[in-house]
Amino acid sequence: MGKRLYVGIDLGTYQSTIASSAGSIETIETVVGRPKDPVARNFLGRDVLFGNDALKNKLACNLYRPMAAGVAQDDEANLAAAKAFVTHLIETAGPEEYDEVFGVICSPSHVSFTDKSNLVATLRGQVNAIMVVTEPFATAYGIGEISGSICVDIGAGTTDIARLYGIFPTEEDQLTIQEAGDWIDMQLMGLVQKKYTGAQVTKDMVRKWKEEYSYVDGEDKEQMVELSVEGKKQVVDIGDLIKAACTMVVGKVGAAIKSIVATADPEYQPILRNNIILSGGGSLIGGIADAIANDIADIGDVTVTCVEDPIEKVATGAMALAQDMPDEQYTAIN
């Protein structure tokens, strides 16, 4: 057998991570920019830009975020952008030094046949064989918690929940809800616009505020940000609004966890309740584990914890799985 590279790929709505068996880990904003016109093309000196480079030059580019809700959007422009992005992502792992590349790619817990087909098509020509697994399973595998646990991946596009018994979870063992990071951003945008009439706010602005200041615990904190109202600068406090927006997701995630517990084997439910693991970017919200534990305390004793380094955990877990799985688990996509 020739020299083989294993990669684990977490294709996220806003950022993507690739971990390789060579020891590299790279996280890039999941955004692709194509110059708007010949002037922009000459100015930028490239036909396509990725990640922060695309965002820095967004006014000169048509921007694509091709992985809405963690799956490739089903239109020609976004599929082409997804293909270009994945090619760029895999190139960061140095695949040219290897005879073949085997990859585990992660998706939300419930995706359609078309979505999975798009994921495979995106990787065709970049890897020799692929396996698609869900994000919470990859995380749990990477931290050695695939037996007797519930893993909750609070991502940008979706929150994905899986109960784990030491095997690949079935469809019945998993649940996907739309209330996640993007949903929190929209709640925060609405609250800001309601409190500060006429405020000019974009999705990228509120996402940045949330990522920098998010919390659900303790007293309201003062968080001053700069707003523009009809072109006029204003510095305002949105600390209470950030807490309110983030708190809104707690009940949604709590209800989904309760559903996963309630439909489990009753003899196993106490074990699952006491090993609930939060991952994904949403697990970085200050106080989120305790807030969810309090929300679901009516079902009995519960233990809720957050993984360390959640942004990398899906990809590193997928890479560990890639190395451990026999070849027959993979689908060849040459």
Structure description:
This protein has helices spanning 38-44, 51-56, 76-91, 113-123, 135-142, 181-195, 203-213, 239-262, 269-273, 288-295, 310-324; strands spanning 4-10, 15-20, 25-29, 32-35, 49-50, 61-64, 100-107, 129-134, 147-154, 159-165, 174-177, 199-200, 224-229, 232-237, 276-279, 304-306, 331-332. With 334 residues, it is α+β, with helices and mostly antiparallel strands. The protein folds into three domains: 4-30 and 65-139 and 312-332, Nucleotidyltransferase, domain 5, CATH 3.30.420; 145-179 and 248-311, ATPase, nucleotide binding domain (Nucleotidyltransferase, domain 5, 2-Layer Sandwich); 181-244, Nucleotidyltransferase, domain 5. The strands form four sheets. A six-stranded mixed beta sheet has the order 3-2-1-7-8-17. The chain has a five-stranded mixed beta sheet with strand order 11-10-9-15-16, with helices on both faces. The longest helix has 24 residues, at 239-262. It starts with a strand and ends with a strand.
Topology, please?
Elements: E1 4-10, E2 15-20, E3 25-29, E4 32-35, H1 38-44, E5 49-50, H2 51-56, E6 61-64, H3 76-91, E7 100-107, H4 113-123, E8 129-134, H5 135-142, E9 147-154, E10 159-165, E11 174-177, H6 181-195, E12 199-200, H7 203-213, E13 224-229, E14 232-237, H8 239-262, H9 269-273, E15 276-279, H10 288-295, E16 304-306, H11 310-324, E17 331-332
